[in-house]
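Appendix C. Worked example: MOSC domain-containing protein
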Amino acid sequence: MDRNIYLDGAGASLPSEWLIQQVRGVNFREMANPHSRSVRAIYTEARVDQVRNRILHHFNVTSNQYSVVFTSGATASMKLIGECFDFKGNNERTFVNCIDHNKSCFAYLADSHTSLVGMRELVGADQICCLGMNELIKVINNCNEGGVNNLAMITGMSNYCGRKYDLSKLPPTKKSWFYGIDAAALVASSKLNLSNEVADFVVGSFYKLFGYPTGLGFLLIKKSSQFVLNKKKFYGGGTIELMNPYGPSRMKVKQNFVESLEDGTINYQAILCLEKGFDEFTKIESFDSIQKRVWEITVTAKEMLTSLTYKSGQKLVKMYGWNEGYNINSQGPIINFNLLRENGEYVGYNEVRKMAELFEIDLRVGCFCNLGACMINLPLSVQEVEEVWGVGGKKCGDEVDLYEGRPLGSVRVSFGKWNCLGDIERLERMLRCCFVNSNEQIRRKFNLFPSSMIIRLVKLFVYPVKSGGAISVDEWKVVDEGMFRDREIMIIDGRDVSISQKNHPAICLIKPSFDNFGNILINDAYQSLPTIKIDANLGGETKELKVCAKNKSGIILGFNDWLSMLHPSFGTDSKFIKTNETNNSGFQSQAPFLVINIASVVIIAEHLNMDVSNILARFRSNIVLDFGKPFIEGSISQLHFSEDVVFEKIDDCLRCQMICVDQESGEKNHDIMVALRDIKCGGPLVFGIYMKPKHSINNKNAYLFKGQNVIAVFNEMILN
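Step 2, the predicted output written as structure tokens:
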């Protein structure tokens, strides 16, 4: 795959390459702390004020209507509102279901981010209430003008499912109510128009809007509502005219309201980088265009997900939050769902995450810091939440994802300007390979073997050039002789003897690939030599060879000069040769397939404090399975991939010094061999198993694919 697919736009937007390059060109040396009052500082302050105006323009208002306060993020903005809001009550802080209109109230939606719900721990309201949007509107309409102030914090768009709350339904004549809008998720992909001035406060983070910078947010305050934020207690540098250290009562707060709220030096360097973010909307692609394009991608993904069904007719996807008649005004680019097995059972969201990782897809699972939405949609009762999270000890990010067969969270995919339709295609391929087409008969057949376990296929590799670089594939055809077109090409020296990494580590610098017509393209790791193209149907002079005591026939390709330029160890006589076999047989050494266990690879990587992918590449396997436990793979007798594809063990793979070769650089590190010896406690240095098809599969059109279920049958009971 050429790139990871990023489907977590609701978590953070990705900055465009254009923006990254523009930010790199920003001259930070011409800036200075605005509090310093030097010429450079005054210039910096003037530019900061212009950025404030660009922010207001983005929300279709002016500095006559709203002020912009810079914070460290949306969470900090909400905290500032909670600390400063004057409820004019008695600070009773009682959680209620029925509101007394004679007492002050802090209200929020059940569908709220944790940061918003967290405000209830510091507000000075008499009553705290969690309710739905329609309930909130009824409460406000029934409220009488009184001597208290009330604050309703409203989610602009659910970070859980993308539902957009219709802010136009909020009563314009609010009496004693003030509205705060959590726009953190909304502004990432939707234009928020504040021209009707219904919102008193709006919070958000700029990394959600531009993908950069983190640690910078905004609090928009309607000027006519500034007076109610008068309970601020802490005043940092830049917020006061005078603070006498010798007298507790001698403090004079700045009359400039915005400056009185911005504690300490604002993040002026990051703020001035926002200029580039807004420039992108004017010079590269308008925000309206981005919003429309992302919406079309989201709808395509939604239609794809809802169309996925098993052969039995059972739907794969159970979706949350999307209402009938949805449109760009009522729904954002977020899709929340769980998967169902063919028998209707839920798939744990961690299983989905792990399968997505196999296909290099970044998505998010869990409750997304929005437990209220989880409870509404899954659903979960208050008692169940207390049992699982409170008494049961479930933690955020752990592996517990099902409770008595019911989901404790879900899967979320969310989109942004960086996504394309190809991303949706890969998501669909992952879901089809790992779930829709995952052979349910395998699960039923599992019960036939007392000493067996269901495992996952996590990696597939094919090596077009013997001892050359690997190609990682999502799915691949398998034949009796091995992976289709595996080891199709080999290098021989001037004596017609096969060359391998044992004596020529530089072979790993050969990086093959296939073009769309099945031709093999050969490049070097440094991209310094011309590409060699080997026609799939190439004929030519043949030569008889012996490969691992087997007679083979090959077509001489040559390219001696290319090899000598790649590395001097090849000399001038080494050449490529292509198999001339008509039975799909390549230049494999010991067996058709080499299978290893990723759990065993991890143990060695941890032992050496090395990267898992580096160690994995050294073992040069065809099939990588996840047994969950290390070093139990040696005891298997069979692997059942499907009804037609069953492998049986030939032997253990006895390792040689080739595992010492770094597959990227060609350098040797003998610590690998020593580590394997130590872990094996001096026993045979075996790692992985050689396998072959139990029955012929040449006429079965058989494929293996990443994520599929596999039954491992063991010689003995070792699973407990």
